[in-house]
What we know:
This protein is an alpha/beta fold and 319 residues long. It has two domains: 3-209, DHBP synthase (Alpha-Beta Complex); 232-316, Threonylcarbamoyl-AMP synthase, C-terminal domain (Rossmann fold). It has helices at residues 8-19, 41-51, 66-70, 78-87, 104-107, 121-130, 150-157, 196-203, 273-287, 306-317; strands at 3-5, 24-26, 33-37, 60-62, 92-97, 112-116, 134-135, 163-166, 177-182, 185-190, 232-236, 245-252, 261-266, 294-298. The strands form two sheets. The protein has a ten-stranded mixed beta sheet, sandwiched between helices. The chain has a four-stranded parallel beta sheet with strand order 11-14-12-13. A hairpin with a 6-residue loop joins strand 2 (24-26) and strand 3 (33-37). Helix 1 packs across helix 6. The longest helix has 15 residues, at 273-287. The structure holds threonylcarbamoyladenylate (TXA) and magnesium ion. Threonylcarbamoyladenylate is lined by residues 28, 30-31, 33, 57-60, 93, 95, 107, 110, 112-114, 118, 136-138, 175-176, 178, 189, 218-221.
Amino acid sequence: MNRRxxxxxxxxxxxxxxxxxxxxxxxxxxxxxxGADGLNPEACARIFEIKGRPRFDPLIxxxxxxARARKLFSRVPKPALKLMRKFWPGPLTLVLxxxxxxxxxxxxxLPTVAVRVPANRHALALIKAAGRPIAAPSxxxxxxxxxxxxxxxxxxxxxxxxxxxxxxxxxIGLESTIITxxxxxxxxxRPGGLPLEEIEKAAxxxxxxxxxxxxxxxxPGCLKKHYAPAAALKLVDGESGAKPGRNAAYLAFSxxxxxxxxxxxxxxxxGDLREAAANLxxxxxxxxxxxxxxxxxxxxxxxxxxxxxMDRLKRASKR
Length: 319
Ligand code: TXA
Ligand code: MG
């Protein structure tokens, strides 16, 4: 069994594996990542194999400090610096022109690289011990639900990773928010664990929406169908939009439905978007079981983390 508790000894072992070109699944504050030496192209290629990504999508490089992370960029505009200072370590990924040291397989040939400093002590210890940036996508199979526990990773990737470091349930539960800069202005590539409102407050300007209908999606997390659970998912405004039954599940925001469903999950009994975000993928994973044909998912308020929750639910509903 490749699943091990994230103890200091196991983290050291995992770091040695990374230095040797191995692949390690590890917890971050957002979701679990599938990591390899970010400066070793062959090791990065194994990530794609294990995930079964149909083509090489660019990876996020994870560093253990903002000072080290900056070295992976060739240029950092001032407003980006401000965001780094304010939000790293944290659920923010910045996409900026890459340094020469960053291999092409990491960026899929793009002139830019995605970098973040995760706010999780196990992840930081792992990166520090490895002594190099760790390239990591979410540790799920391509197009499927992101993992928020080591058990989710195990379910999707089995014995693929050399080690799965178990650091418990991830705190945020949604992938990082991805921001790039166009002519010095912040542009949103993927809504995520850091609410847009907070970024705008820190930046002092509006974050622009990603350019629509660009021929090539800038972030595959932006592919229409992504984050899909095995059952069909339908968005509803409330229980009146759902048909109860044994084969149907109901994913409520804060209140249990009255009707009788095969399974019911409540994202946040307190009606708190942060709590809902943290529970989203775990609820969907647990509904991915035999017999459930359709999941009715309630729309949540589209503010703060609600925006990222709605983004993931909308994508999961496309099929
Ligand atoms: O929270 C997270 O971001 C997690 C944890 C493990 O850090 N990682 C994650 O990685 O969600 P992944 O590969 O599932 O999603 C990364 C997204 C992809 O959609 C990818 O296309 C985009 O980042 N990306 C990476 N490099 C890029 C670049 N140079 N330009 C535009 N998008 C990029
Ligand atoms: Mg992903």
